[in-house]
Design brief:
Helices cover about 10% and strands about 40% of the residues. The protein is mainly beta and about 350 residues long. Bound molecules: 2'-deoxycytidine-5'-triphosphate (DCP). It comes from Chelatococcus reniformis.
Length: about 350
Amino acid sequence: MGILPAQAIGELAAAAVLTADQPLTADQIQPASLDLRLGSSVARVRASFLPGARSVAQRLEQLALHRFNLASGAVLETGCVYIAEIQERLALPARLSAAANPKSSTGRLDVFTRVITDQGDEFDAIDAGYHGPLYAEISPRTFPILVRTGSRLSQIRFRDGQSRLSDAELAALQKDLTLVDAAAASIQDGVAVSVDLAGFGEQRLVGYRAKRFTGLVDVDRVGAYAISDFWEPLHADGSGALVLDPGQFYILASKEAVNVPPDYAAEMVPFDPLVGEFRVHYAGFFDPGFGNGTGGTGARAVLEVRSRDVPFIIEDGQIVGRLVYERMAERPASLYGDAGSNYQGQTLKLSKHFRAQGT
Ligand SMILES: Nc1ccn([C@H]2C[C@H](O)[C@@H](COP(=O)(O)OP(=O)(O)OP(=O)(O)O)O2)c(=O)n1
């Protein structure tokens, strides 16, 4: 029971539970998830949809405004909704279900991405026993993006039964292993995560607000863009508050450092009372090992924040999300931070596409 670790995901491919025309590459497999690759065909649609009783292909026959190929790359424009084929297909046994989420790098770019399935009636949720294709709904909100066949925007977790920790189990784990470094962690339906507006470093950097009408971001280029071309830094002004402008996108950080011990995986979910006012984070999966091995200091969670219809004041220390933890079915063979991880030990970090000033 639990979330399948990397080694078990590899076995799913060997057992043809997970198939693709191009073989899986080793770096697609993360400690507790698999990165999904875009296929070649994309449709621009009028609006987002759920397939309900039909297949996605059937719905696209009615809803596609235009289809194009991603083989040599294509720009996805802001404000438009696209449905892209995903290369991976599933033939899940009855006890395995799956859940999808944007990769952290996708969420940090404000690219709204969800996975849909044939006959699906929920986004990002794949029923136990599902046999069929996967599709990604993609809608860039702030920056136009360049994607191609093989680009990875989403990730999927496989779940054998249910293994979510109760609040009592979380309280015990908080005591033993310090899930968040808060003096008195608030635990109710998960562990509370709050926003840090006190600022980091000498400059008291609080976060970044995305610029509008910028250039393109190629999702496959790492360290390629100057921060100042895409983001305005925000500094603490002593008020301990930040006014979120409606329609603007912000990257902020959590006050708590977060630890995900090796036998667990976590997911950040919205803090419900705030759902109507502003939206925090699109990317919620936290890998086993995240924040571990950082000398006990953990790593901050990144908060992707957007206000809805009215300006909204958030305050330093305000609770904005909850971390739910699930058991791993088995300890992953490698943990987050072992190799090639972009966000281990982070404080306030934009997506991997941006390079620090002057570098
Ligand atoms: N809102 C979020 C979501 C995730 N993370 C952290 C926890 C994850 O373990 C880590 C990496 O997440 P992904 O695997 O989604 O990120 P990428 O695949 O984009 O990056 P990497 O190349 O580092 O795996 O980022 C975070 O700090 N804040």
